[in-house]
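Review the following:
>
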Amino acid sequence: MPELLETRVETCYQQAEAFFKRPFARPQVSFKLRGQKAGVAHLDENLLRFNLQLYRDNQEDFLRQTVAHEVAHLVAHQLFGGSIQPHGEEWQLIMRGVYELPPNRCHNYEVQRRTATRYIYQCPCPQSDFPFSAQRHKLVRQGRRYLCRRCRQILVYSGETRVE
């Protein structure tokens, strides 16, 4: 599946080269992005990272809009340097002029939230439940202490967990 995505990256670069009549250094492309972001351009590393799950779920729009969006960041950086705004007029010029696409800052893809285990901590206050992340729970087990903001007592693990 990433072959189509890599082909689209190359097509975007060829369009930019034809438009600006100059060559552009090709980036390294990674598919190890997770979470809510569809793509990220690392300007100084000349690296593009894409979210394969969002690509699979939104392939047509992703290829058309998201890939061009991220390539435009790298092209703008190579043309104008590092002092431009990420979604400023230079980037917008490339989106509109080179790719003939709207310069949308964000995608509207539906993102599946991961389930997370929460560790329930309590204090003497009535109806006190403090759901801690696994990372915070680990810190408590290593000796860190957290206090209730109302009663100033140390929060204690109740032994309960819940999945959110």
DSSP finds five helices and six strands in the chain.
